[in-house]
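In response to a reviewer's request, we include the raw inputs and outputs for one of the modeled complexes. The two entities were modeled together in a single run.
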Amino acid sequence: MVYPDPDFEESKAHSPLPRLAPVMDRLLAFLIDFLIFSPVIGLAISGLLKEIRTLLLLNPESPEAGVLWILLVIAVVALAIFSEALCLSLMGGSPGQRFLHLRVRSLPDQGPIDFVQALSRAALWWLSLPWVMPLLSVYTHPLRRAFHDRASDTLVVTDRGVGDLGPLPLEREFFLSWSRMFLILVLFGATLSVLRLQDLISQRHFTQQAMSEAGELCLEVPAELAGVRRLDRVVATFLAGGADKECLDHEADLMLWSAGSAGKAFAYLAKGLAADESDVSTVYLNKACEVESKGEACALARFASSTEESRSSLLRAQGLSTLTSRVLLLRENVDRGELASAAALIRDLRAEKGFEDYLSREEVRTVWKIRESKRQGRTPASSELDEVQRDFEERYELQ
Amino acid sequence: MILACPESPQSWHKRPVTWCLVAANVFIFMLFFSGLPDSSASQLLRDENLRVAGEIYLRYEKNLPPAQRLRQPAWLDEMKSGDSRQMEMLGSMAVRDRRFLDFVENSPPLGDEIAFASLREKIHQFRDNLSSQPLHRFGLNSERTKSFAWVTYQFSHIGWMHLISNMAFLLFLGWVIEGIWGGGVLLLLYLTGGFAGGLLFLSLSPAGIIPMVGASGSVSALISFYSLAETRRRVRYYFMLLPWQNLHGFVYLPTLLIWPLYLVSDFAGLIAAPEGFITGVAYSAHVGGALLGATLALNFRLFRQPT
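The model returned the following structure tokens for the whole complex.
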């Protein structure tokens, strides 16, 4: 007598094949699930999202916001996996699947799935999502089982009368060839990403970041300078061509909006010099004199507004205590041919850092004018001017 | 894409109140809002003015009474004077605050006095022009709480997309609600939903000067009422994955599904909006209308006769 093998279950050996869920039904179910779960998960993470948006508004490059973004993504994925696993284990399918009469069954017994199995299925679905191909194997597998179905021993079936008949040979061929192309694209994209990453971590990027972290202050001026001295240097550097209008305007704003009234006249002067429109410039220059009518800022403002030949006396009357007045007077002296004064100012300004280019230009102009004047016999010989010329020629090895 | 889709829309004469509401919205939009010129706020919202407004606001906020300071957003303490980007951002919030605008118009000059005077003049022009704009005449804000604005704002829209999106929902929801409970119930829900939405909007932005317009609060009340009052029904949706055969069509889903599809995102949007900033969508009005609709629906279910 032959006893039946107790491990062989006759009912399973002859169990009927399930009606496979059509792929389009599964896609529609996914769409419905997305529309249901995305606002719900959005509500769950809205507090975190508010925090991120506030941080980004305060500082677009906030590192805290970057960390929170990562946490947000993790939270979204975790919530999605958990909620899907809950629905699969309790209802036998997600809400979208249930609306469309689909069920997720365990293989090989075709019974309901438990929470752990549902959790692994949902997690594997999310793991497959960035790679796409494991999900697309639903078009090639005879039982329409994608990677996450096979790995979690599940099968999606329909309660409707007619089920899917499985993939057609052409369908299978098309997606196999498409997946090969996708693999090539992924490799190409990965290579580009690595190259981009190399560029991002290079010195050039960090230098740019460091500059942006310095804010909108004029980088040409030492950070330790403050108050009116700082603003004076900023204006002088701007007039010498070493700083731009934007940082000058910003430094002036800082002075105007800070507590206390010291330096406001100079700040109005700076705003007047930085203004693009002449009428706005005039208003600010007049305001500098309104705030402090007897100060050097007002003298500089009057100088900037005037076109008279004797305007340099406005600066001299104040004693040339500011760097700005000396820079302006140097240019004025060279323009007017007062070369001895110009030479003295050049010597004086050499002690200041950051004006080398400006002084070189003015020195060239001064020496050129000395030579022209000598050639035309208009200027009487002066030992001081001769010395300036000689010194220049020796320095640049000119004959 | 998936959209709610009414059945037999061709029988228009069976839903007179719905069509009247839609027609009123469209008519008012065509008459007053279509083809509006650029807003007078455009001059005020230039970067340099916003920076100045931000600097002033930083000082204004520090001198507020303690009770009022408590209602200010927490991130204000992290704002740094002199940071142009932050000041522009703060300024964009400041110019929408009625109390701040009053302060600028009446306060002695601060900081850059020339820029302050220029800003004051622009604010003055802005407020003068605002009162003549349809948005301000028909919209609801903190300055117009004792007028017909509570009703007119529900029939006003700022653009074609705003109008079309609201009317699509009004058409569908009005259709089903009027079909089940009649035009009176529909009108009552529409108006009270709008009132509730406006109430929540003003309570969350008590000093806002930017008017709110739109039928969203009313429509949210309709959506919320229908989805909770008739949970046993099914709603027909049109879906389209791709414009090919078998990839688009109709599907019937429970009415309760309307909540996650259309209303939960408003709650999320309200909570996720950074404090003090206007997002362009008045989530508070949507939520207010939805809450009223939900309350009425639950009361309806509690007190209706079993059939």
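As requested, we also summarize the result in words. The interface with chain A takes residues 2, 51, 55, 75, 78-79, 81-86, 89, 111-114, 239, 241, 246-247, 251, 253-254, 257, 260-261, 264-265, 267-269, 271-275, 277 of chain B (CB under 8 Å). The first strand of chain B starts at residue 2 and ends at 4.
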